[in-house]
Amino acid sequence: MATRFALLFLSSLLIATSFRFSLAEADVTGSDDLLIRQVVDHGEENDVALGDNSLLNADHHFAVFKRKFGKVYGTQEEHDYRFTIFKANLHRARRHQKLDPSAVHGVTQFSDLTPREFRKHFLGVNRKLRLPSDAHKAPILPTNDLPTGFDWREHGAVTPVKNQGSCGSCWSFSTTGALEGANFLATGNLVSLSEQQLVDCDHECDPEEKGSCDSGCNGGLMNSALEYTLKAGGLMREEDYPYTGTDRGTCKLDKSKIAAKVSNFSVVTLDEEQIAANLVKNGPLAVAINAVYMQTYMKGVSCPYICSKRLDHGVLLVGYGDSGFAPIRMKEKPYWIIKNSWGPNWGEEGYYKICRGHNVCGVDSLVSTVAAVST
Ligand SMILES: *[C@@H]1O[C@H](CO)[C@@H](O)[C@H](O)[C@H]1NC(C)=O
Predict the structure, then answer these.
(1) Where is the Peptidase C1A papain C-terminal domain (predicted)?
(2) Which of ligand 1's atoms lies nearest the C-alpha of 136?
(3) pLDDT tens digits, residue range 313-364?
(4) Integer-rounded Cα radius of gyration of the chain
(5) Where in the sequence of the chain do the CATH 3.90.70.10 domains occur?
(6) What value does the mean pLDDT of the chain take?
(7) Which of 118, 201, 269, 299 could form a disulfide with 251, with the two C-beta atoms 3.0–4.6 Å apart?
(8) Which of 61, 96, 105, 313 is catalytic?
(9) Distance between CA atoms of 262 and 229, rounded to whole angstroms?
């Protein structure tokens, strides 16, 4: 049966439409302000990156930020404008810390960007896109023998963390990551693949959704990119078609240099056991997520009490684990290990951990698994 996932969401505002009550272990849906305040009040400050008085030290934090990330602003006006945004982001980081006590939130390379700029330049799941109507569903796999923890990085299926730069091309990195893993499983070789080929050449559209096409730095969808890759015959190596971070170039595909080919791909059902089983069997998975907490994320397991399931970022699911983080009452909470495309200086050496078990931030909603041709 044809699968169509509705990726249209009612609001683009930062109104969380889905609430996760971690303490009560129950999903509550609604949009009640009182509920938000209660959850915030219960949030404990553990290992907080920003102390209570840190907002008084905004000048100092901004100076450290500029030095650390080599930020230079053209004019005094621009500098002052960025400082205003920076201060607002300090407040946001503190709010995120309260809503997400098992992670550490604070100053990141994105702290001088408004949420809108951040979404436009560093995310890139095109929400107008839906899954192609011919998307196949992955077969249901047995789950009784799944390991309690698994990490494809330990098995050589994951290339080093890459950097999409200021371009909404996350979808291309999620796609190459999944095919790099599948190609490794099929051939035994780990080959870094070209995102720029997807950015320049892939304009795959949904036949039933006019104007919904993969479009370089303006977003795309992993399933469409896999469809393109299947039709185009495969992807070239990163070194043969290097990343430029712009979508102003023309397509430079050289079919004689194709290094990995898609044999087939499918969509995994919204079930965390099935996602884990497909991960272990087929390699890293292309997934979409809501990235609002990622702008301030520094380390730890992100498990926000409130997170929208509006998908706006494409990443790579490479593994999962079972424990190993504070606070005590969450100690046994399992998590997913996610490879991001914002360079190794973001998060945990470029990686993000998000708790597993409740489709937090929509991480289970749009999961693609790929198989590569073994030649
Ligand atoms: C590819 O197709 C085979 C045969 O139909 C199927 O068993 C397998 O699950 C598919 N793999 C993926 C990743 O969709």
Answers:
(1) 146-371
(2) 14
(3) 999 999 999 865 555 555 567 899 999 999 999 999 999 999 998 899 989 8
(4) 20
(5) 124-372
(6) 82
(7) 201
(8) 313
(9) 7
Distances (CA, A) of 356 to 40, 223, 238, 302, 367: 21, 23, 32, 10, 14
Q: Give me 300's structure tokens.
A: 């730890």
Ligand 1 pocket test: which of 266, 268, 279, 374 has the largest number of ligand atoms within 8 Å of its C-beta? 266
CA of residue 309 to ligand 1 center, whole Å: 28
Do the beta carbons of residue 196 and residue 242 sit within 8 Å?
A: yes
Which of 274, 302, 308 minimizes the C-alpha distance to 288? 308
**CATH class of this structure's domain 124-372:** alpha beta
- Determine which one of 167, 170, 201, 213 is catalytic: 170
Report the C-alpha gap between 354 and 337 in whole angstroms: 7
Q: Is the pLDDT of residue 158 over 70?
A: yes
Phi, psi (degrees; rounded to nearest 5) at 73: -110, 140
Which pLDDT does position 128 carry in this prediction?
52
Q: Which residues pair with 300 in a beta bridge?
A: 103
Q: Of all protein residues, whose CA lies closest to atom 12 belonging to ligand 1?
A: 265
The structure tokens 């999903």 sit at 27
What confidence tens digit (pLDDT) does each residue in 36-63 have?
332 333 333 333 355 555 566 899 999 9
| Those residues with Cβ within 8 angstroms of residue 334's Cβ, 6 or more apart along the chain or in another chain | 320, 321, 322, 323, 355, 356, 357
* C-alpha of 119 from chain center: 12
Tally of CB atoms within 10 A around 51: 11
DSSP conformation letters of 151-217: EGGGGT--PPP-B--SSB-HHHHHHHHHHHHHHHHHHS----B-HHHHHHH---B-TTSTT-B--TT
Instruction: Look at residue 270 in the predicted model and tell me its pLDDT.
Output: 87
Q: Which residue has the tokens 């360079």?
A: 343
Q: Which atom of ligand 1 is nearest to the CA of 282?
A: 13
